[in-house]
Amino acid sequence: MDLSKVLRYALDREHEGLAFFAGHAQKARHASVAAVFERLAAEEQAHIRYVEKLLAGSGSPVGATAPEPMLQARDKSFFSERAANEMIEQTTAEAMVPDLPVLRMAFLIERDLAEFYASMASKAEGEARQALQRLAAWEREHERLFQALHDRVFAEYSGMAWGG
User: DSSP letters along the chain, please?
Assistant: First the structure.
């Protein structure tokens, strides 16, 4: 496995994720959805910096490039189940319905990237494996967030009388 190629591919995907989240933060019809996308855009930017540091060190041991303190201090994203629940409780599902397809798309993006990182980690060794597993874990947390948000909004929407 050519780690530098894997990391360049990952960097491209992280940039795409950043563009997606930043763009949809501005387009979201509901303030809470916009806030989630803004926070995810900030996290994607941190992932980009982390992958760039890994890429800069890919000619030498990956551990030579330590992750950013913010990312190293926690393997969880800013989000938790509690934060997702509070966001939904502070909103009305009706207002979020137009953002439902975007939440689904965000889930799929995060799932695909988590699967990529996990697949590459299974082929890597040592510190490269650990770095890729860390990236997979971060993306899995984002995946779980968007799955939960989508499923809750969809469940409320599907129980509404037609026309809201």
Answer: --HHHHHHHHHHHHHHHHHHHHHHHHH-SSHHHHHHHHHHHHHHHHHHHHHHHHHHTTTS-GGGSPPPHHHHH-SS-S--HHHHHHHHHTS-HHHHGGGHHHHHHHHHHHHHHHHHHHHHHHH--HHHHHHHHHHHHHHHHHHHHHHHHHHHHHHHHHTSPTT-
Contacts of 10 (CB under 8 A, 6+ apart): 51, 113, 116, 117, 120, 135
- In-domain check, residue 36: yes
- The answer to whether position 64 is within a domain reads yes
Residue 131 lies in a domain: yes
CATH number at residue 59: 1.20.1260.10
**Residue numbers of the domain that contains 24:** 3-158
What is the pTM assigned to this prediction? 0.73
Q: Total domain count for the chain?
A: 1
* Residue 164 lies inside a defined structural domain of this protein: no
Give the per-residue pLDDT at 71.
43
Q: Tell me: the pLDDT tens digits for 50-89?
A: 999 988 885 444 443 444 434 443 445 444 455 555 555 5
